[in-house]
Sequence to fold (1004 residues):
Amino acid sequence: MDKKKIYPWYFGAGALVLYSALFVLPSLIGIGYSFTNWSSYSDQISFVGLENFARVFSPDRNYLDYLWNTLWFTVATTVLKTVLALAFAVLLSTGVKGLNVHRAILYMPAILSVLIVGMVFSSILDPANGLLNTTLRAVGLDALAQKWLTDAHLAMWSVIGVDVWRGMGYVMVILLVGILSISPTYYEAAQLDGASSWQQFVRITLPLLRPTLAVAIVLNVLYGLKVFDIVYVLTNGGPGHRTEVLYTAVFSEFSNGRFAVGTALSTVMLVVMVILGVFMIRVLTRNEVQE
Amino acid sequence: MSRTGRPPQARGVGVVKNVIAWALSAVMLIPLLLIVFTAFKSDDDAQSMSFTLPKQWDPSTFLTVIQQGKLADGFLNSMLYSTAGTLLTVLLAAMAAYMFSRRRTRLNNVLYMFLVMGIVLPINYVALMKVMQIFGLNNTRLGIVLLYSAIQLPFMVFLMYGFVARIPQELDEAAVIDGCGPIRLFFSIILPLMTPALVTATVLCFLNMWNEFVLPLYFLNSTDKWPMTLAVYNFFGKYETQWNLVAADVLLTSLPVVVMYLVCQKYIVGGQTAGAVKG
Amino acid sequence: MKKTFIALLAALMVAGCSSGSPASGGPASSGAAETKTLTVMASQGWVHDAELDLAKKYEEQTGVHIDYQISPSDQYTSLLTTKLNAGQAADIFMSQSGKFDIVSNLQIEKNGVDLSDQEWTGRLNQAVKDQVSANGKVYGITIWDVSDSYVYLYNKTIFAKHGINPPTSFAEFKAACATLKAAGIQPIYEPMKDGWHHQLNFFDVSAAYDASDPNLVADLNANKTTFAAHPIFKQMIEQMKEIYDAGYWGDNALSDQVSDGPAKMAEGKAAMYVGFMGGLSDIVAAKGKYGADDFGIFAAPYLDNQTISETPAGPSKFIYSKSPNIDAAKKYLAFLAQPENLQYMIDTEPTFNAVPFSGLKTKYSATVSEAIQAHKPGTSTVYQNAVVYLNPQWMDFGKDLTSYLTGDMTADEVIATIDQRRADQADTAQDSNW
Fold:
């Protein structure tokens, strides 16, 4: 069989050409510009070497703090979403009536635009009249009523919380499908051997769910590192700079017309993510390649 | 343990489970009700967004929004971009995923990685605008569709790649022996078998394209080409915001994706990762 | 569903094919070709209904449709610089005027069209004209009430009830706040959530800065001195922190929003609010417990300031040099600048008391006229329009100020960062003074 003939190259050409022309090319140009003093202030662009990168990594700038915030956000949302989603998925995989209705509802936040999520939660988390604090006060938990989005110590957690709200259902539905596709014969056999629920979870569910879990985790990590809009609509990096992440910083550099610094920052991010992404995708597809 | 009838303990657990399920659904749903309530409020009632029932259910906001925001035009534009973009993306992604998955040469593996890397690639708007200009795509509907596709392609290829691998290669061989050319093989044999992955990709792609609002802002220079998502800014003032109008607009704008999702939801979740992981 | 899909796909093909003809953007033959549509880029809140009425009238008279593209304000600067940089801006673009910013950020000499020969430039107020001019050439038109400035709007009735007079010094200001707070009234409504409001005072008390050193503005602009070298700036934000720490901005200042300001004042929920004098009409329109007669005006009292500074800049319109419709755009601007149309704006737009053109009837209320007479000698200009490389960092400075108020930054750090950002900008702009 001649694979070249059955699977001609031009099948992949369309995607590659479109993607390269409109997505990779601009990014490459951008990377090129990150070694210049490109800005909206001047047409003369000259090469400045690593100056922009030096600025990004310089300790008297806040970028390293933003990097730290980004990592914190990524780890926290990934862990919370995955653990919660897994717990609920296992719990709800049996004995729940109208599972499809719940599935539809749980997934709903993920299909709405971030703009809407931002609007709704700015209102809910409003310290004076927001739904959350009013409810807490109504049930006598006044002490728990907080300035969710504006307290310096809480703001990041609130953003993380909203993001978990938005993404948890999505992850859960994916895991739920994975769990439901595990053949019940495994569990029946285990029950005959007298395995406890916990043992069944650890020995059967978890290993068989591993590939699905892995994809969910990778996508969450990449999403977390790239996060911009949910932070932007909720706090815009505030109070002060408490919830500033890398892409909100990139955005503000671009707004100020300092294109080169902005690109340098996103180039650094790109390198980190490509390394991480390629590594993780490799791990994921490892079994398959050996096939 | 008796073989007939459920043990009472299990029934108790079942109730608890159902309660948890509903509680969880409520947590997801209540914030969204806020939008619905606000949309039906009158102007005076809606000076801020709060979780109270409207004093009077006033559907006239929707009419105002449709007229002032030119939502009908916006709807058609959104429909055009999302539909055309989705069809293009899904088709190109399916073909590419199929080819890369079947012909795993060293070069093809590298190209596949290169393509999938796009999942993490940030968009550089200024550079992108220059490139769009070179191709004459700025401020054209075609340009926006191609751009949407280019950006969605990496994830969609990733999604379908593994799925194709699960379709037995023996099928291809049989078809070739029967005299099938590569194009007929793909379109009449492989593509139908990919239906679950195709539906998933279609829905996800459509959702993402429908919700997009930054790209059209940058790459379309006239409002008659703007999609529905941008109309909402007509209702945000710098000093005052008419929340009822904003909520009504947002509700109308999300309606198509919600409907689309509900219709297709049973397909979505299955294909979501199945394709990507199961070799 | 399927049929719609196919129909739409067909529509796309057609659209795709016809998209070659330039709607705007491409270098179409200018002048000779008839202009059907003029595009205008603006940020939300910059185009009032009165202007849209005029645009409709213009379309009826000439057949030229004015396509206003309103963008989210938080994206606008980025959008505009990107489009200018890529040569893709609309026929007319709006931007805040500012004699420094239009040259550095907008590169107006390259991107704008010289409008000095237009009839209306003769009627445009000189100080305002300066802010849209570069090297003696006029590039833009400011149809905005720039006679207005940010001031303290206060509730006279509440003040009187507690025996408080409008403060004439910082000490009196603090005392007034203390009295109000003790009486259970939130002294000041200060919406910090939007990110652009709470720093207004810092820029508004320029008269106090000027008084501390008459050469300060000139020296700052020539890079002969820095913000850090003058303790008055630090003193200013320290006073702000004093007010903030005492809780005079209320418990929820960080999540309060500008859009709620008028309603809070009308309801008497707060006694003071930093707003435009024209903003009094918003308070009245909010129809609360208090009406037009209940409100008064005083100048920002930090640093014992008693002067309302001039704000000669505002949202302005510029014609894009690469537009294929330059002549048509000039005609439209000339139309807007006709005296009867300007008068229509003043009469129709509630927040406008005047626009900066000669020969028009203003509609200042007694309250506003009094305040202008008492506090507005016209000698000081708000700092963002007086000092170079300051306005572009408005939002960033606001974030720093919040960090300082909430204890994440020190006053020295905030002031030093102003200097650092100015240096960064000067560096990017390749300014020879730096």
Q: What stands out?
A: Chain B has one domain: 60-277.
